[in-house]
Amino acid sequence: MRLRILKSGHGFGTKVLFALIRTISRQPVLDIIKLVKYRSDFYGGPMSGVTHEAMRGPSTWSVGDRELMAAFVAKTNQCEFCTRAHMAVAQRAYQRDGKWLPDLLSDFDTAAIEAPLRATLLMLGKLTREHTVAADDMRAVLAAGASRQQIEDALAVCFSFNVIGRLADAFGFFVPGPEAFEAGAKYLLARGYQ
Amino acid sequence: MSDIRQARKALARRILEGAGRASLSERRTAFNNSGLAKQPGALVDKVARHAYRVTDEDITAAKVSGLSEDQIFEIVVCAAVGQATRQYDTALAALEAATGKE
Questions:
Q1: Contact in structure between A178 and A91 (CB atoms under 8 Å)
Q2: A172 in contact with B at a CB cutoff of 8 Å?
Q3: Maximum Cα interatomic distance, chain A, rounded to a whole number of Å
Q4: Do A39 and B73 make contact, defined as CB atoms within 8 angstroms?
Q5: Contacting A residues, span 51-90, partner chain B, CB-CB under 8 Å
Q6: With B77 labelled, which of A74, A82, A171, B1 sits at a CA distance of 20 to 30 A?
Q7: Closest CA to B40 of B67, B12, B13, B77
Q8: pLDDT tens digit string along B35-88?
Q9: What is the pTM of this model?
């Protein structure tokens, strides 16, 4: 973490919480938690409202689909922390739903994925990479079978992870081993983002 | 269906209009990624365009220019939210153009 305040500048109560997390999970506290808990009235609190609604609010996209979108946006942004974190949540969410997680990060073209989700991910990837999309890009997603509301829901996910991924990379989040992400995924699937 | 409009407004209002260590003007220009001095302008532009390229040296340069860690924290948050907001608004406009819905 590049800012000392984000690493160790939290108040006493938050440090106690971190100690509790370390004890219960037997894993280091993820840097994303350190970020959202630092002066949480400025960023962490208000942003949690956005992210929880995007990721756990009502939608015809499943939780697994939205976690997959988050991982895909992160991958496009070359954010290793967020890619690993949200692939871990997506894996658990799909498993819970009795589905296989499509292996789209390693081979997007051949991954077993339904047309509306595939077209939506392509559009999110373009938006993230090029910072813009056109009406024709949206028509392609609609033609693939996604509804207007599903596109809006996907854009909400994209907004959240275009914020979070930038912060993870700018602040230099430490990328821990898979066990730490598994512990984080378990929490996020059970409790969401608030 | 999920609706982030109110939550997004609250986030923008807090980081751009609420109390902070960076000035309101610094936070607003970071959000817009325009009109900033060399530092933190260079850092803000990197965060907005390709955050994965930010290095330790970029943060050090911002500190050397006289910014505190809290000011850098706020300015980077504003830069990230600003760029994501422009992407989101552009996409919603494209969706409206495609569907004809106002």
A1: no
A2: yes
A3: 54
A4: yes
A5: 53-54, 57-60, 77-79
A6: B1
A7: B67
A8: 777 778 999 999 999 999 999 999 999 999 999 999 999 999 999 999 999 999
A9: 0.96
